[in-house]
Design goal:
Mean pLDDT: 94
Helix content: 40-55%
Strand content: 5-15%
Number of helices: 16
Number of domains: 2
CATH class of the largest domain: Alpha Beta
Strand order of the largest sheet: 3-2-1-4-5-6-7-8
Largest sheet: 8 strands, mixed
CATH superfamily of the largest domain: NAD(P)-binding Rossmann-like Domain
CATH architecture of the largest domain: 3-Layer(aba) Sandwich
């Protein structure tokens, strides 16, 4: 299969960073953005200042407002916008093509994973999931970043990973697409919790305990949804969970810190806070856990904080008073 040209749907920070990574890997990249002014800036100044400040983009990256044919398609829009973005594309454009899904979230209403949305909207596309410990600014700047690329065909996944691998961006091929997808979505929920612990000044010990218990809870959820718990020992699991739950660069962690300080979701959003995927994913994950009969007290706790039913201190006190049992 020819893997020389790349179409990236989404001109935000992550889409631009992935376009940059693909260009540095030697691919010719077309970046689709909605704003004509942004497109002009990328094509004339080789920057996307709205999202990546003065980061200079590779010469192989060109921008457009219209999607065109390519060997590889990367979908890099927010998780709740995936269905709309795919609906704007001709399914024939995606038929038989590898479509790399890079959003980390579960869809409100349908409870669908990103690959399930793709199957609904473009059933003949070939789904791949990209996830792992990565910030857009690091990827765009060429700082060392390793991620997981999961697909259903081992040989094709390895070929695609090789096509997107550059001197600093290293996608490791994997076969557990569901596990990688679920882990990527849930880690944002736990990042909200860890940020809230930080914002409430409950201490590093509480945050570390929360990460460990989140890992165990995530394992239960991944297994119940048809993935492999062993996936969580890699980049898409432990790697991404650790990064997102400890760094102020994480939007979800930042949002959680504001929650921990006692701010409401409405007030945080009104202040101009950037999109935190975990805010939309949490109620979906909570509904899924209940439907699957999975014990997920941390997800339920984050949902209680987001809905205003409890503050983080009360939630942590409740978690600490749960009956003692053997660690799993």
């Amino acid at each position: 299969m020819r893997l020389e040209t790349v179409l990236v749907i989404g001109g935000g920070a992550w889409g631009t960073a992935l376009a940059q990574a693909a260009a540095m890997a030697g691919r010719q990249v077309s970046l689709v953005a909605r704003d004509a002014t942004q497109v002009d800036e990328i094509n004339t100044q080789h920057t996307n200042s709205r999202y990546l400040a003065n980061q200079v983009l590779h010469a192989n990256v060109t921008a457009t407002t219209v999607a065109s044919d390519a060997d590889i398609i990367i979908l890099a829009v927010p998780a709740q916008s995936s269905r709309t973005a795919l609906g704007a594309l001709d399914p024939a454009l995606l038929a038989g093509k590898p479509v790399v899904l890079s959003a980390k979230g579960l869809e409100t209403g349908t409870l669908d994973r990103q690959s399930e949305i793709l199957t609904d909207m473009a059933p003949d596309a070939i789904p791949y999931v990209l996830s792992g410990p990565s910030f857009a600014a690091d990827v765009a700047a060429g700082r060392p970043t390793a991620v997981t690329l999961a697909g259903d065909d081992a040989e094709a996944t390895s070929a695609l990973a090789a096509a997107l691998a550059g001197p600093s961006f290293r996608p490791y091929a994997a076969d557990d697409r569901i596990g990688v997808e679920v882990a990527g979505a849930l880690k944002n929920v736990y990042a909200l919790a860890c940020g809230a612990v930080e914002g409430a000044e409950l201490g590093a010990s509480a945050r570390s305990a929360l990460i460990a218990r989140a890992f165990a809870e995530m394992s239960r959820m991944v297994s119940a949804m048809g993935g492999s718990a062993s996936t969580l020992t890699g980049l898409a699991g432990l790697g991404d969970l650790t990064l997102t739950c400890t760094s102020v660069q994480s939007r979800n962690y930042q949002f959680g810190m504001a929650l921990g300080r006692g701010e409401s979701v409405e007030a945080i959003l009104a202040s101009g806070a950037k999109l935190a995927e975990g805010v939309a994913t949490t109620p979906v994950a909570d509904a899924l856990a209940k439907s699957l009969d999975v014990d997920a007290p941390l997800i339920a706790a984050v949902q209680a904080v987001l809905s205003g039913e409890a503050n983080i201190a009360k939630v942590v006190a409740g978690l600490m008073s749960r009956p003692l049992k053997r660690e799993d």
